[in-house]
Amino acid sequence: MKPQTIGRILGIGVRVTGRFVGQQLSSAAQTPSPEMLPSGARPSPAAANRPLEAARKAGHTSRGIARGVGGFLAPFRRVARLLWLEVTGVFFFLPVVVFAPTLWRVRTNWASGPQHSTFLLTASVMLVFLYLSVTSFWRARKR
Prior knowledge:
Layout (H helix, E strand, L loop, with lengths): L2 H27 L15 H61 L10 H27 L1
Helix pairs in contact: 2-3
């Protein structure tokens, strides 16, 4: 199937389901108006509280579902956090590897020379990224 076709099918399905659920909720939440009741009858207070009760039940159910899903995903969150820190550490180490040959080439000009500023700039960039890489791995090991 083409991605456009799958997206179109899913979009139509979501719209139809949304309309259906909306109609079900609105029909359950409607209280009969005085014109719809037989003459002399009044709507009961219990009928007026039905939408509030339904909303409370829905809120309670959604909280329970959220708590259950959160409990299920807790181990995955920990692993994802560790993986994120380690991948970040690797990406922070890449500039250190890239700038190392430049630092080695201009190492003789560290005190004075035509490439003194290049040496200082390269060394400072390497130190910053080395610090970020090491601390990222350190935080991953600490967790």
